[in-house]
Specification:
With 801 residues, the chain is α+β, with helices and mostly antiparallel strands. Helix content is 49%, strand content 10%.
């Protein structure tokens, strides 16, 4: 009992250390009150461009071009928070694109439990601590998983550190959703391992609950990647255990005292039973996450990306073979983040974050050693899967097979991102290798031939990807960014790093046996932490939260005009691109109701409608802004009036002569001008026959609209109903009443809600009540009830094995 208590204290100490490392990694934001967002990007955009130099003169240019976290993810969190604060469910977003689904868009993560931080803390503070929390969870969950499959404490710590601070997590941290999905993977595999080997349904239910968090976390693509790994793991694990399982649950004890309760055994007597516990795990995950999966599946059928992505385009984004060296030296093809504007910026394929899979040199070398020396099933499985993920990312025929066979792969914009699972496998292999250090170091030092072969193998493993796969045709040399002598210096630096690691490895081989192996293992943990901290610390921008959407004079004037109408923004005439535009989705922070906007998924008809207005065709011939609706020129004024647009904000100052527009001011520096539109309909309008009939429109709320309509008796027979188009986006799930009587809602004008009414004055109430949400909510409550009952039962009967 005393030994168990001492061991438990050591485990808790390791967990606390991992949490401290997570806070320390982001100390600039955690301890100074800054926000982990590239907020300086805002100061490069309109209408804040002029204010940046005045209030933040030290900011000369944005450090990183990470745009999506600022213009999409942060406003979405603000919208969900505000909707819930108003006492409404976050089902519909009326402030973008004339209305668009909110919770059904997986990226909003409206139902993700850790996002409760956003409801109890200020938005910027919650953003920072949500990132730190998930980095800590990544390390702790990996530590628990490695301990659960037999790794010692130093090995579990090294694996946890490598998984916490690998390049994929660091590069995508500001996006949040990527990390929010991936961090649950080791906990899911731990529960699956215990459920399969012990045949306990309690572990299956716990694994299902953790698995559901991936689908609620906000990034469906990474949840599907994880599903691929989990399916492979469960199938391979079941196949590796020949029934009956010899020794039952006690025969394969975990190294973690928390998972080895005295008297907890079990016998998994058949393959069918093991398959059954896996089915339970997947079923529980599906039930709990149904509140997200069902609405998202409904949106997937009608969204603007419907039809999937072409394989040739996905294949074009594969990791080039010559860039494999980035896995060993991330800056091999150029810098990112704080180095982005240095002389040697990234020159490789795609962009840096798409291939940011560095986990530290020590873990990579340990993983290579583990493939040959760790005699565990887990090492063999993760070695094979790491190779599989790498081959898929490289665009080999395995990518074609994955694209055509795996469900949902055709909807993935970037299959090479499966490289994120490669980092996971390397971290696991490194942890297992450290745990067996005494064995393989003893084997190596037995003969001089083995030592020589070991030394040559390690040198080749590191130098070949860095030097051979990055030849003299490196783009830095080709474009003149780096001279031949500079390139030679770079290669020499890499070789010095290799030699330093070689010396460390020789020390490990010499001393890593017996009791000294534990000391060497902890030194490797420290080396890995120093490597990743030294390389990545400070890459994530910790910025003054005052940079996040400060209110300017033009924004204040637009807010005064907009009232209950909508707002539209136009780019400047001197350039095209986001730096000349008003940031999309800014209305979510200022309370505007926007006609345009940016979203990862929205109704396909909305995109087609505005493409027709802009190009005369439902398809965008240039494909410039696939996930946005934006305008190069002002749409027809009568259309704007029908949509209740009464404010235009733009850098242009030449719209004064446009019919119905009146300049009311703007910023003093001339960067932004505000125009007002008279909402009184023109008597000779010809754009649509419907717009003269909109007499009154209340400000739309999250899930409802109210209109007062008067139809023209002179154009309609007395008893004939006519279709009326309402200026709110159509989407499955809208319900309508006319003067209190239910009526069916149809799409009108291709993308808007339409109802049939008789001549006269009517009040039309629209409410958004999608069947997919109601069914999903019921199933999620059912899944939570099962988990609650299982937890209650386990507390009273020692159900967990």
């Amino acid at each position: 009992m005393h030994r168990l208590s001492r061991d438990l204290h050591k485990e808790i100490g390791c967990v606390v250390l991992l949490i401290v490392l997570a806070v320390g990694f982001f100390w600039q934001a955690a301890l100074t009150g800054r926000v982990l967002l590239p907020a300086d990007v805002i100061l490069a955009m309109r209408p804040w461009k002029g204010y940046g130099h005045e209030y933040f003169p030290e900011v000369l240019q944005a450090e990183t071009p990470l745009i999506d976290p600022v213009i999409m993810f942060y406003p979405w969190r603000a919208q969900v928070k505000q909707t819930i604060a108003d006492g409404r469910l976050p089902l519909w977003n009326p402030d973008l694109l004339c209305g668009t689904p909110l919770a059904a868009n997986n990226s909003s993560a409206a139902w993700y439990p850790p996002n409760l931080l956003f409801y109890v803390l200020p938005l910027a503070t919650a953003w920072t601590w949500c990132i730190i929390l998930h980095f800590a969870m990544a390390g702790v969950f990996m530590f628990l998983f490695l301990r659960g499959i037999g790794a010692n404490r130093p090995g579990a710590m090294l694996g946890g550190i490598a998984w916490m601070f690998n390049g994929w997590h660091v590069a995508w941290a500001e996006y949040q959703t990527v990390v929010c999905v991936l961090v649950w993977l080791p906990l899911i595999l731990l529960c699956a391992e215990r459920a399969i080997t012990r045949g306990r349904y309690g572990w299956a239910i716990a694994g299902g609950a953790a698995y559901a968090m991936q689908f609620l976390g906000g990034h469906a693509q990474y949840a599907l990647f994880s599903t691929f790994l989990i399916l492979c793991y469960c199938a391979a694990r079941i196949a590796s255990l020949s029934p009956p399982y010899e020794g039952g649950g006690r025969g394969r004890c975990s190294s973690l005292p928390l998972l080895n309760k005295e008297g907890a055994g079990g016998r998994c007597s058949s393959v069918a039973h093991r398959i059954g516990v896996c089915i339970v795990m997947f079923a529980i995950a599906g039930l709990i996450s149904a509140i997200q999966i069902l609405p998202s599946a409904e949106l997937a059928r009608v969204n603007h990306r419907r039809g999937g992505f072409d394989y040739a385009a996905i294949r074009a984004g594969a990791l080039p073979v010559q860039q494999i060296g980035m896995l060993f030296s991330p800056n091999l093809w150029g810098g990112w983040g704080k180095h982005e504007h240095a002389a040697h910026r990234y020159q490789g394929s795609q962009n840096w974050i798409e291939f940011s899979a560095y986990v530290g040199l020590a873990p990579i070398l340990l993983a290579i050693v583990g493939v040959f020396f760790v005699r565990k099933w887990h090492a063999r499985f993760f070695a094979v899967f790491a190779l599989t993920a790498l081959l898929i990312a490289l665009g080999t025929p395995l990518m074609w097979l994955f694209y055509h066979v795996f469900p949902g792969a055709t909807q993935m914009p970037s299959i090479p991102r499966i490289l994120s699972l490669w980092t996971f496998c390397i971290a696991v292999l490194a942890g297992l290798s450290v745990s067996c250090m005494g064995e393989w170091s003893s084997w190596v030092k037995e003969t001089a031939r083995r030592r020589l072969a070991f030394d040559i193998g390690l040198i080749v493993a590191v130098t070949v990807p860095v030097v051979v796969l990055a030849p003299q045709s490196h783009p830095w040399v080709a474009v003149g960014r780096m001279s031949q002598s500079d390139w030679s210096t770079f290669v020499l630096t890499q070789m010095v790093i290799v030699m330093v690691l070689f010396v460390i490895w020789r020390v490990i081989v010499r001393l890593g046996t017996g009791d000294r192996a534990v000391v060497c293992a902890w030194l490797l943990c420290a080396l890995t932490a120093a490597d990743l901290f030294g390389f990545f610390s400070g890459w994530n921008p910790a910025k003054d939260r005052g940079m996040l959407y400060p209110e300017t004079k033009a924004i204040f004037q637009a807010r005064e005009i907009e009232g209950s109408g909508r707002i539209i923004s136009l780019p400047g005439g001197e350039a095209r691109g986001f730096l000349s535009d008003v940031a999309p989705n800014m209305g979510l922070l200022y309370g505007f109701i926007e006609v345009q906007g940016a979203d990862s998924l929205f109704y396909k008809r909305t995109k087609e409608f505005w493409n027709t207005i802009r190009y005369g065709h439902p398809e965008d011939p240039k494909g410039e802004f696939p996930n946005e609706v934006r305008f190069a020129e002002l749409p027809p004024t009568d259309l704007l009036k029908w949509l209740r647009v009464n404010c235009v904000i733009t850098p242009r100052d030449d719209l004064g002569s446009t019919q119905g527009l009146r300049c009311v001011g703007g910023d003093d520096d001339g960067l932004m001008t505000v125009y007002e539109i008279d909402l009184v309909p023109d008597t000779d309008t010809k754009w649509t026959r419907m717009n003269r009939e909109i007499l009154d429109w209340r400000t739309p709320s999250a899930n409802s609209h109210t209109f007062r309509i008067t139809t023209d008796r002179s154009t309609s027979p007395t008893d004939t109903r006519r279709q009326i188009a309402l200026p709110g986006s159509f989407y499955p799930g809208w319900r309508a009443t006319v003067d209190g009587a239910p009526i069916e809602v149809h799409p009108a004008e291709h993308a808007f809600c339409g109802v049939a009414v008789s001549p006269g004055t009517h009040t039309i109430e629209l409410s958004y009540r999608p069947q997919s949400f109601r069914l999903g909510a019921f199933l999620s409550l059912l899944g939570l009830s099962i988990c609650t009952a299982a937890c209650t039962f386990s507390l009273t009967s020692r159900w967990f094995g």
